[in-house]
Amino acid sequence: MLLVSESIARSALERRESRGGHTRDDYPKMDPEWRQYNHLTTWNGKKVEIEAEKAKPLPEELFSLFEMDELKKYFTEKELAKGGK
């Protein structure tokens, strides 16, 4: 459980933005650049390592399943205009 907690906390510190339920006082706004990446954490036997990987866009068929009010918490206006494309 400690390993998972450290992975979550360190990944959160790497992301320089607020989005949805993940808010930071020092970075209060969404940054569309960060939406382009996922953080992958691994254990190398001694410590947690974090790697940023290019994220795939949310597929259009999944995008349409959510209410717009919910999507606005996670996507910028520009991202919403693309509609999952």
Summarize the structure.
With 85 residues, the protein is an alpha+beta fold. It contains four helices and two strands.
Strand order of the largest sheet: 1-2
Mean pLDDT: 87
Largest sheet: 2 strands, antiparallel
Distance between the termini: 36 Å
Beta fraction: 15-25%
What count of helical segments does DSSP give? 4
Rg value? 15 Å
- Taking pLDDT < 50 over at least 5 consecutive residues as the criterion, the unreliable ranges are none
Structural class: alpha+beta
Tell me the overall shape: globular
Structure in words:
With 85 residues, this protein is α+β, with helices and mostly antiparallel strands. It folds into two domains: 1-54, no CATH class; 57-85, no CATH class. It contains four helices and two strands. It has a two-stranded antiparallel ribbon with strand order 1-2. Strand 1 and strand 2 form a beta hairpin. The radius of gyration is 15 Å and the shape is globular. 4% of the residues are buried. The mean pLDDT is 87.
Describe the protein's topology:
Blueprint: H1 2-14, E1 37-43, E2 48-54, H2 60-63, H3 68-71, H4 77-82
Antiparallel strand pairs: 1-2
